[in-house]
Amino acid sequence: MNTLFHSDDSALSPQRVSTAALLERATERLAAESDTPRLDADVLLAFATGRARASLLAFPERELEPDTTGRFAALVTRRANGEPLAYLTGRREFFSLVLEVSPEVLIPRPETELLVERTLARCVSLRRPKVLDVGTGSGAIALAVKHALSEALVTGADVSAEALAVARANAAWLGLDARWVESRWLEAFAGERFDVIASNPPYVRSAEVCGALKREPRLALDGGTDGLDAYRVLLAEAPNHLHPGGVLLIEHGAAQRPELVALAIDLGWRVAAEHDDLAGRPRVLELERSGVP
Question: pTM, whole model, 2 decimals?
Fold first, then answer.
């Protein structure tokens, strides 16, 4: 076993070690857990040292102090044991925004940026559009929309008070004005209507919330036996909360589109558009009410 990265951090050698050697050993240690072990090692070393990645990579011969090496080794061990990188650093980039994240919220994924893009496309021709992000978590979707379209009136809703605390902290950190409402789906919005309702709801089948996913909040992932429980609620409740001509935008799993389209049509929705992510996987549906101009 590599003496620098024992699972027992007390075995860490106090010696000064070069940046290049640290990164090489960390990459080896992370290879079994991560699909991007070298990138993870780079990010964790930058976090442990407080230096930019570019600075670390520019001087591979630089030797680091033992306490810095110890901090890095502890982070590498936690990552090798399956802890998500974003939870270790407390940060995640999304739609060019740096967001705080914690184990209380789902880690924003790059494919969800498509949902933001489609929300912005539906808002661009509207004056002061009202946008609701249901299941906001860290506030990623709501804040990305507000940052790109400052005149939008943006609300983020979540059933988790802990998640909303993270969203509020992100809004304050970024200097963005949004409203945050604790709500189980749309229950708290009686009599209120929006131009766009966007949601990345829990859609993983209960039996498939396993492996690395178990490190993230189950509330934000578990979509029930068939993964469609959240959609049934959204499709039933959203019509009472959309202006005429409004749209419901939902992210979904790659294999769920046929079932979801059938469910939406059965409940009186019209599929206005279907969108695939950059990997070519079905990802977002735009839904409008049938017969509503």
Answer: 0.90
